[in-house]
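Reviewers of the previous submission asked for a worked example of the structure-prediction workflow described in the proposal, so we include one complete record here. The input consisted solely of the amino acid sequence. No template or homolog information was supplied to the procedure at any stage.
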Amino acid sequence: MIKHIVLFKLKSFENEALKTEKLNEIKDGLLALTGKIDALKTIEVGLNCNENEAFDIALTTTFNTMEDLDIYAKHPDHLAVGKIIREVLEARSCVDYEY
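From that input alone, the workflow returned the following structure tokens.
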């Protein structure tokens, strides 16, 4: 099994309400991938509640194989959510590991 963990830091927003709206749009978009991509076994999305930390979103997904992760990464629905994220992305960090 493969665990894929991604952290996203968004660019600055004009105000917190706009940032919160975008965070929820991204979270909803990612969670909506459930059932759309067969290779995706589990997905969890958390919005950071600790203002002392740098990243805004944590994404944790699981796959049977690295090949399944690649299928997910190239899936049109995943790419559509990725486009939304890239528009406001400042930084991204990722780790994939077997467990």
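The beta strands are 2-10, 42-47, 57-63, 89-98. We consider this example representative of the routine output the project will generate in years two and three.
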